[in-house]
Each structure stands twice: as C-alpha cells, then as structure tokens.
Amino acid sequence: MNTQSLRLLASIGLIALVLWLVGPTEIMAAFAGADPWWLLAGFVCAVSASLCASLRWHALAIWLGMDASRRTMIVAQWRGITANAILPGGTLSGDALRALHLNQAGSDLLPATASVILDRLSGLWVLVTLSLSTTALALFFGLLPAGRLPVSALAAALFAATSLLTPFLLWQLSASTRRHLPARFAALLDTVHQHPRPFRQYLAQLAWSGTVQIACILAFACGGWAVGMALPFWQFIIVAGPIFIFATLPVSVGGWGTREAAAALTLGLLGVSKDLAVATAVLYGLFATLQGVLGAVTFIKSAKP
User: Fold this and answer.
1) CA 73, CA 104: separation in Å to the nearest integer?
2) Across residues 160-170, what is the average pLDDT?
3) Among 39, 57, 141, 287, which has the highest number of CB atoms less than 10 A from its own CB?
4) 180: in domain
5) Domain tally for the chain?
6) What's the confidence (pLDDT) of residue 83?
7) How far is CA 15 from CA 18, 100, 203, 244, in A?
8) pLDDT at residue 22 is higher than 90
9) Cα(259)–Cα(248) distance, rounded to whole angstroms?
10) Which residue would you say has higher pLDDT here, 186 or 268?
11) 222, exposed or middle or buried, with CB in 10 Å at 0-12, 13-18, 19+?
12) Which residues contact 24 (CB under 8 A, 6 or more apart)?
C-alpha cells in the first residue's frame, strides 16, 4: 500500500472516529438547523479568500521577476484547491500543481516553486501572528478567564512578536548560510535574495495575507454562526490558528479529519460543544470542496478541443 493510500485511509479513519466520538445524530441536528444565509455568507467569504490569495501570489510572483497574468494565477489557484480537495497530502498536492501550472505558463520551475513556497509560508506566518496577538490581547484585557487557554498573555505576546519578526530573521539567516546548503536549496534561496526592496515586499505580504486570513476566518465563523455557535469574531481568530494549521498537515485529504479534531479540541477550550465545533469544521471543509468543484470546471474546459 502506497503513502497516498495510507493518507486517504488515515483521513477517513480520523473523521469517522471524530464523528463517532461526538455523535453523528447531534452533528446532523446541527446541520438541519443551519441558517442558509450564514452558509451563503460563509461560501462568499471563502471564495473571496481564494481570490485574494491568488492576487497575493501574483504580487509575489511579480516581485520574483515572473510575468504571469492574474488570470493564469487565479485559474491555477482554483485548480490547486481542486487538487487539495481530492488528493492526499494536505496542501502539498495543490501547491505542486500551482508551481507546475506557473511553469507551463512560461516561468522557470525554480522561481515558480519559490513563489508557491513563499506564498504558503506567508499565509501561515500571518495566521499564527493574528491568532497569537489576539490571544495576548484577550488575556491581557481579561476578555478570557485566566487558565482558559494553555498559554499566558506574556507568552502569547512574545510568540506573536517573534512570529512577526520571523521573516526578517529568516532573511538574514538564509543570506549568510545559503552557500553552505545543498545546491538545490541554495539555488532556491538565490532566486529570492537577488530581488530588491524586501521590506516593501514584507509589508505587501503582510497586507495581502492579513486580508486572506481574515476572509478565511470569517468563512469559518459564518459556518459557526449558521449552526448557532454564539462566539464573537475575535474568538474565532484565536482558534483559527491551530485549526487551520492542523488542516494543512500532509496526513489527510483536504484537511478532513485533522481539521475536525482540532476544532473539537480548541473550540472546546472556549466552552463550545463538540457537535457544533465539528459541524462548523465540516461546513468550512464543504466551502473548500465546492470551490474544488469550480476548479474542476476549468480542467474540463481546458480539455475541450
């Protein structure tokens, strides 16, 4: 049995275990009472996040010296979502397809790969920063009871500051050490360091990724509000960090299983019942799956003679 099959079985097994532990009847009851308007709003936010993500990637590719059109990268973004929805490997499958698509559009494979890696890291970097900084503020101002989360306000603030400064630290570290790395990694870093104005690009990535992550978290929150979860938006920002990161782990298909397990654990810390937490995570996964269907349409159209 190959690795992809094992990941598929692990994803199915994990989500089956989560559903069994929480109770499929309770989860179905949450779905039955879902507000359709909040569901529509969640899907619109998810689509907006994907569109902004493709524009963020385009801005990064331009900085790296590539000349791909926005349309090319928007199509590649949605095809990547399709790959993530149906192939094992978390987001790795979609990212590989995005790099290949950009290469086929005329960009060299090395900078195309660098753009995808940096784009993915940019999203995770801002997600972590948003989640930790909101956690620090909530604990500092007493919006959450002490001991509710497994971290202090000071620790969360220090981690958030470290996360915010990480790109600068990595830039300096990679500049001084890349010559000592294997040739493939050194060449990949060279494609980044040969471009000017890194601070301007840092601010651009911060702005783009902030927009993308807020739209993603809004989509997740709309799913929660649809099933009756009474949490303010800032609490969704706190839990989005671990939930979204677990969904990207390369042990599942489309984040199924890992996302639901993380949602049950993290939202449980805020007093949310496990059935509503899992139902919200499933709805968020369905938003991505529907976008994957849209991406599949582009494959069908391009295959027509």
Assistant:
1) 12
2) 90
3) 57
4) yes
5) 1
6) 79
7) 5, 31, 38, 16
8) no
9) 8
10) 268
11) buried
12) none
Tens of pLDDT, residues 168-193: 888 877 777 777 777 777 777 777 77
In a domain, 267, yes or no: yes
Within-domain flag for 170:
yes
Q: Is residue 21 part of a domain?
A: no
- Tell me, letter by letter, the H, E, C secondary structure of the chain: CCHHHHHHHHHHHHHHHHHHHHCHHHHHHHHHCCCHHHHHHHHHHHHHHHHHHHHHHHHHHHHCCCCCCHHHHHHHHHHHHHHHHHCECCCHHHHHHHHHHHHHCCCCHHHHHHHHHHHHHHHHHHHHHHHHHHHHHHHHCCCCCCCCCCCCHHHHHHHHHHHHHHHHHHHHHHHHHHHHCCHHHHHHHHHHHCCCCHHHHHHHHHHHHHHHHHHHHHHHHHHHHHCCCCCCHHHHHHHHHHHHHHHHCCCCECCCCHHHHHHHHHHHHCCCCHHHHHHHHHHHHHHHHHHHHHHHHHHHHHHCC
pLDDT cut 70: percent of the chain above it: 84
**pLDDT tier at 300 (50, 70, 90 boundaries)?**
low
64-96 per-position pLDDT tens digit: 888 888 888 888 888 888 877 766 555 667 788
**Residue 125: pLDDT over 90:** yes
* Residues spanned by the domain of 55: 3-8+33-303
- Reference 60, options 2, 121, 101, 18; nearest CA is 121
Query: Encoding tokens for residue 234?
Result: 């800032």
Instruction: State the Cα–Cα distance between residues 42 and 40, nearest whole angstrom.
Output: 5
pLDDT of residue 199: 83
